[in-house]
Design a protein that fits this description.
Number of helices: 9
Helix content: 55-70%
Keywords: DNA-binding, Transcription, Transcription regulation
Order of helices and strands: HHHHHHHHH
Protein name: HTH luxR-type domain-containing protein
Organism: Streptomyces alanosinicus
Structural class: mainly alpha
Domain HTH luxR-type: 94-151
Largest sheet: none
GO molecular function, one term: DNA binding
């Protein structure tokens, strides 16, 4: 259906709406995100700018939840092109860490205590704990025991 709708034309919005409705009843979340992006891109041509923003934000949320840059980028780009101000993208991987957070998480999986890590890095223990907590949030983990799976192999 998305392929047929890509030709544009009067039936485009209807075809994409049908595609979205069909995909909403499946677990094909990335396909749904792409269909929502396509629908959001063509809705303004038929005067539905508010509905367009809603569909594009749904696509963006869905793509981010699936961790798909391939689906996130187009939705974000169409929102920007439409003049919307989408929220900042979530940062939830190793590349989102600051230099200090990276240094701390590299020491944390070992047997060093918080006091030992703070001493090693010449910072207060509370500062080290703050950075470690921020790193856990960005990595989407809950403690040191999850660091091994969250960090790339050295």
């Amino acid at each position: 259906m998305r392929t047929r709708a890509s030709r544009r034309g009067p039936a485009c919005v209807e075809t994409l709406t049908d595609a979205v409705a069909l995909l909403e009843s499946t677990t094909a979340w990335l396909d749904l995100a792409h269909a929502l992006t396509d629908l959001g891109a063509v809705l303004p041509q038929s005067g539905h700018t508010e509905q367009s923003g809603t569909r594009l934000r749904q696509a963006l949320d869905l793509a981010e939840a699936q961790g798909s840059t391939a689906a996130t980028e187009p939705a974000h780009a169409v929102l920007l092109a439409a003049g919307a101000r989408p929220r900042r993208r979530r940062q939830t991987d190793v590349t989102a860490l600051t230099r200090q957070e990276s240094r701390i998480v590299m020491l944390a999986p070992g047997r060093l205590t918080n006091d030992e890590i703070a001493s090693e890095l010449f910072v207060a223990r509370r500062t080290m704990e703050f950075h470690l907590t921020q790193a856990f949030r960005k990595l989407g983990i809950y403690g040191r025991h999850d660091l091994a799976r969250a960090l790339p192999r050295a």
